Amino acid sequence: VPRTENVELPIIPTGYSRSRFNSAIEAIELLIGRQNVELNVKPLVDGWYLEHPNTHDAFHLVEQEELVSSATVYPASTEEVVHIVKWANQYEIPIYPISMGRNLGYGGAAPRVRGSVIVDLGKRMTKILDIDPDTCTCLLEPGVSFYALYEEIQSRGHKHLWIDVPDLGGGSVLGNTVDRGVGYTPYGNHYEAHSGMEVVLPTGEVIRTGMGALPGNNTWQIFPYGFGPYADGIFTQSNFGIVTKIGMTLMPNPGGSEGFMCTFKEEEDLAKIVEVIRPLRIRNILENVAQLKHVVQEVALLGKPRSHWYKGKGAVPLERLREIASTLPCGDCSWVYYGNVYGPKEHRDEKLKITREAFETVPGARWIPRESLPRDHYFFSRENIASGVPEFEELRWLNWHENGSHVFFSPVSAPRGEDALKLFNIAKKWHQECELDSFPACCVGLREMYFIVNMVYDRGDPVSKANAYRCMRGMIADAAAEGFGEYRTHLLLADQVAGTYSWNNNALMQFHNTIKDSLDPNGILAPGRNGIWPKKYRNKSWEL
Ligand code: FAD
């Protein structure tokens, strides 16, 4: 991706004067130290996963310069976060908190309002404050990555403790949890697995939720609810506070873990397969997030660009994908299921037997013995992830395009065959219309199914970007018309998605607005995040 030319003057927040901005920067430098304030004056570099920028969205969906910060501040403690929040109120400057900013596919580290000051909590607030091997819990600051937590648990010799990891282990445990991210052990719903938060409110007060509000307690990480209204939810996917600590529960090692793989021949059998998965998942025979991936991902995971396999325009035809797949361990198929079973061997064998029998009721299903797979097969990365071991292999499919970037379409449905088919057809229609390959995966949480479509595009090509954006908007609108909503979305699509949750004359958004106006009267904290705009921005053409 070409870099922009060196900008001589930093970007300033929209509607702000340069002299006021300069005064504000001088003031924050005095409060937290000049070395902990960085102006966004260097060329924008997209980097890659491990060297991602904290100035903009590395996977830009629009012009690279659209969603950018003016500066970044690096607090070292909750007290410094309080100073920053009070400073932002004094200067009425928009701030945007990130933990590590690896939210790639959902907006990365970018703020929604151009020129906001990024509060990067991940650089200096990196403490693992507690790991309790008896209650299997921990207390973390925002800069603790899945890798760091995993390594610390190993180095302390707590072999009986597992963590839960998403596809990639470089993100922040706290950042992922407040965005309600998911991983792949039985503790995969991260919000559900958390217990207790410390939050700096937009006016600078600090609260602890749940048992954390009771001085002298030793149950903050044990019992999430405490007494009275349960507040934690409003600090996720919102702009109501900056979370500075989070408690997480850790899964005890179940006594063994083993992956399995099954392929299904026909694309149109999607509904049948999902009907087979649902009862197994709800009965907990399948104990972790079940993942059924389209065969295109098996091909993309080889890490070669799409042009290596197919020269034509538009989506690579299914026949061509199946032809390539027939040379791979998965064989000629349309869908690949990656799963895991847990517990001692006799328990695992019993669950594998039940699952295999159920899967093989779908004509053309093929159970692939674990032992038959080469050690460098993606299967073993999935097995690790499902056993709480962080990995990076999932990055391979980004090579599908030059300057490979992606954006997630993430609607939630019931784990029903007819729903999966409806979403699959919506995605297919829009991908064809926008000449993009569709990378769908059905991920069954428990009673909910995330129909995740990873859309890979070339961020160096304005046409590819425009198509990706158009495709996303089209899918969101069509899915909503069928009664489906997204569980999470890219920063730029948040207004559209929030607008689909409109029951009773947008009553839910009006409730959010009431909370926002009360907690953040100056509208300084992450304006526009998840479609929630402070009063001074609301209905002034910020919404997309
Ligand atoms: P951040 O980027 O730090 O935080 C995310 C957002 O939460 C921020 O933008 C901010 O708005 C808010 N936030 C962060 N910290 C705070 C705070 N302290 N207070 C208030 N608000 C805050 N995600 C999954 O969940 N599961 C997956 O399996 C998964 N697979 C992926 C695969 C690929 C190939 C890629 C590229 C991405 C994937 N992601 C997945 C998305 C993303 O990489 C992860 O969710 C990642 O953990 C998010 O980045 P982060 O942890 O650094 O969070």
Could you write a compact summary of the structure shown?
By secondary structure, this protein is α+β, with helices and mostly antiparallel strands. It has helices at 18-32, 78-91, 146-155, 173-178, 270-282, 295-300, 306-309, 318-325, 345-359, 378-385, 417-433, 462-481, 494-500, 503-519, and strands spanning 37-39, 69-73, 95-98, 116-120, 128-132, 137-140, 161-162, 194-200, 206-208, 242-249, 251-252, 257-264, 290-294, 335-342, 366-368, 404-409, 411-413, 439-444, 449-458, 485-486. Strands 12, 13, 14, 15, 16, 17, 18, 19 and 20 form a 9-stranded antiparallel sheet that branches. The chain has a 5-stranded antiparallel sheet with strand order 5-6-10-8-9. A 4-stranded mixed sheet has the order 1-2-4-3, covered by helices on one side.
Explain this structure.
With 544 residues, the chain is of the alpha+beta class. Helix content is 29%, strand content 18%. It is built from 14 helices and 20 strands. Strands 12, 13, 14, 15, 16, 17, 18, 19 and 20 form a nine-stranded antiparallel β-sheet that branches. It has a five-stranded antiparallel β-sheet with strand order 5-6-10-8-9. A four-stranded mixed β-sheet has the order 1-2-4-3, covered by helices on one side. A hairpin with a 4-residue loop joins β5 and β6. α1 runs antiparallel to α2. The longest helix is centred in the last third of the chain and has 20 residues. The radius of gyration is 23 Å and the shape is globular. Bound molecules: flavin-adenine dinucleotide. Flavin-adenine dinucleotide binds next to β3, α4 and β10.
